[in-house]
Amino acid sequence: MSFSNTETPADKPADPYKATNKTEPELKEKVEDLVNFISACKFGMMTTRIESSGLLTSRCMALAAKIREDADIHVYSKEGGGVDLLFHTNTESGKTDDLKSDPTINIAFLNPTGEWASISGEADIVTDREMVRKYYSPALKAWLGDLEDGKHDGGPEDPRIAVIKVTAKTATYALATRTMLGRATEIAKGVVTGSSPNVNKLRELSEEELGQWRQQNS
Prior knowledge:
It is a single chain. By secondary structure, the chain is an alpha+beta fold. Helices cover 30% and strands 31% of the residues. It is built from 7 helices and 9 strands. It has helices at 16-21, 27-41, 94-101, 129-135, 140-144, 180-193, 207-217; strands spanning 43-49, 56-62, 65-68, 73-76, 85-90, 104-110, 116-126, 161-176, 200-205. A hairpin with a 5-residue loop joins strand 6 and strand 7 (116-126).
């Protein structure tokens, strides 16, 4: 079902911004630019459907990363060739109830310059200790605390710690093609001329494209 509020000229795009800014490079470039942007953001807004009301809710989540001790740097997951995302979670939190009821999920990323990405997919709550240990961070202890029962101590063996794995189904993102000043100039020109400003690389990845990338790179 679609929505329209008017009839536009047949020879002109009804959404000139999208028509002007959408680009279709090779799949490798589309995916790598997305993965690099997500890794640079580190934090995303995770949207789930509340089990009790059916309403949507979002919360900020940090990408799970393992630490390379030889270089003291964070290495983000390459699950699904980098397009499938991992997040730590407390299994006793509300978000796990939401995801058990409805695994459909969206993760949105935004940086201070207005570049953004939106990934929709399905989530799986992974309690496998090997994966938990692989991506465990001592910082988790601050969020879960030590219940002082010898079991729930916020460490890698704490059964409350799990990993939310998001299998991406579709992705849309926009990366700037100009500086802030250049974009402002383009927008100002658009106000005067009525032409849509060319300021972003607007890209979409379909479920078929993401499946192809996983098959080639997992």
